Amino acid sequence: MEEEILKVKNERENIIKTYSAKPIKNTYLDDLAQNSRDLQYVTIKEIIEETPDVKSFILIPDPTKETSELIPFKAGEYISLKMFIDNAYVTRAYSLSSNPKDSLKEYRITIKRVEKGLVSNIMLDEMKVGDGLTISKPVGEFGYNPIRDENNIIAIAGGSGITPFMSLAYEIENNYPQAELTVFYAVKTYDDIIFKKEIDHFNKKSKRVKFVVSLTREEKEGYLKGHFNKEMLEPYMKEFNTVLMCGPKTLYQDMNEILNEFNIPKKCVHFENFFIDYTPNIKDEYELKVILKNDFVITKCHSDETLLVAMEKAEIKAPSMCRVGICGFCKSILLEGKVKMIGSNMVSTLAENDYIHPCVTYPESDIVLRLDI
Ligand code: FES
């Protein structure tokens, strides 16, 4: 027995030594330490049924777990919800949809049911008032930046992509008297409109915030009909504009064509993207070896799932926030193997240094990955 333990111990030490030649920069470790301090423990104070498949959750601090106040956020930021489901650690990013002015005492996240969605379905079907949740600090770069942006803001939202713009509406109204915001919001039918009361309130009371709602599959008095087009946007465009977009992939494709017609410079167009779109050519299963600080784990990974998902299924607490290759929080070192990374230029740059973002990386062979946790 002792021999066996010694053998395993030696094997582990060898693996850790072999794969430790390349140091991870201090900043990464600092970030990890910093972010683990920024976890927040909250309780669900209220659940609001927005539409048949969308609910809002009002989250308040849980002082019994040492969260006495929430960390303030800026409109456009999101939190990462952390859960342990079916023996796996999972995270999901949700935009904050509440008034940033209230952020010390409460957040609102608004969640749409996703077909076969693991976390969204648990949130919508099982969570109740009084339940506790663990969330990250607010993060993200999306939103209005008075130094960078023009003061005429055109926000374009599809479906649940409205969530960051509801926060933004409050922020513009309360904090930026120089700015005007028009939110173009497309939904299928009248019943699919999220935040209907708040939209009506802004449209009645505000001089600088306006919502233009279009129903793509229904005609109704007071609402536009169909997908947004150049004619619908034209009356709200000024000489200089900033465009913000949030919604499904098709929204970006359609709107990019329309925005080209207005000659809006690319630097004035910003978008929030919470989806990845990839189907591997071949379906296969590989071995994934994850070297941790004082240990290693060997598991399986499939060509159609990201390395992050494979690690979560193996109960590895791999760090993650955005899950779409933007935040850099999951950054790890690829020691061996061939991968397919999708997403931003940042990912390709990292790849040249053997750094990858497991949240947008798919295996194409057996993989050895180093993760400093
Ligand atoms: S979780 Fe944000 S880049 Fe991977």
Summarize model confidence as the mean pLDDT.
Answer: 87
Q: What structural category do the secondary elements indicate?
A: alpha/beta
Main β-sheet, spatial strand arrangement = 4-3-6-1-2-5
Quick one: CATH class of the largest domain? Alpha Beta
Task: Give the helix tally.
Answer: 9
Helix coverage percent? 10-25%
The CATH architecture name of the largest domain reads Roll
Strand content: 25-35%
Shape: globular
**Could you tell me how far the N terminus lies from the C terminus, measured between alpha carbons in angstroms?**
29 Å
The profile of the biggest β sheet is: 6 strands, antiparallel
> How many domains comprise the coordinates?
3
Write the topology of this structure.
Blueprint: H1 2-18, H2 26-37, E1 40-51, E2 54-61, E3 78-85, E4 88-95, E5 107-112, H3 118-125, E6 132-135, E7 152-158, H4 163-175, E8 180-187, H5 196-205, E9 209-215, E10 224-225, H6 230-233, E11 242-246, H7 249-261, E12 269-272, E13 285-291, E14 296-302, H8 307-313, E15 332-336, E16 339-341, H9 345-352, E17 355-356, E18 361-363, E19 367-370
Parallel strand pairs: 7-8, 7-11, 8-9, 9-10, 11-12, 13-19
Antiparallel strand pairs: 1-2, 1-6, 2-5, 3-4, 3-6, 13-14, 15-17, 15-19, 16-18
The protein binds FE2/S2 (inorganic) cluster.
